[in-house]
Write a structure and sequence with these properties.
Blueprint: H1 6-18, E1 23-28, E2 36-41, H2 50-64, H3 67-70, E3 73-79, H4 83-90
Parallel strand pairs: 2-3
Antiparallel strand pairs: 1-2
């Protein structure tokens, strides 16, 4: 597995802390290794509309990453605990 750039490591830690996340996964998007998808599982998302979840996550991206670094994030999946099964069933 490719090691994450420092900017993505900082982002992972900040998402985990600020969102009290159970899990934060940052994975390279194939075939490009300079673009990443982010999956966050946090109890803070329970009952929260999808748009608000995205807003919270992207606000953190904007705080932690430079504009150039933020362009490395291609997608954010913001899920509450238990929703991952539903998400995977839709794939």
């Amino acid at each position: 597995m490719t090691e994450l750039p420092d900017s993505m490591k900082r982002l992972e830690e900040r998402l985990r802390t600020d969102l009290e996340a159970e899990s934060v996964e940052i994975d390279p998007v194939e075939p490009s290794t300079d673009r990443f998808s982010v999956t966050i599982i946090s109890p803070k998302f329970i009952g929260m509309p999808d748009l608000r979840r995205q807003d919270l996550a992207w606000e953190i991206v904007d705080k932690v990453c430079s504009r150039e670094e933020s362009m490395m994030v291609t997608a954010i999946w913001a899920l509450a605990p238990g929703e991952i099964t539903t998400y995977l069933e839709r794939l």
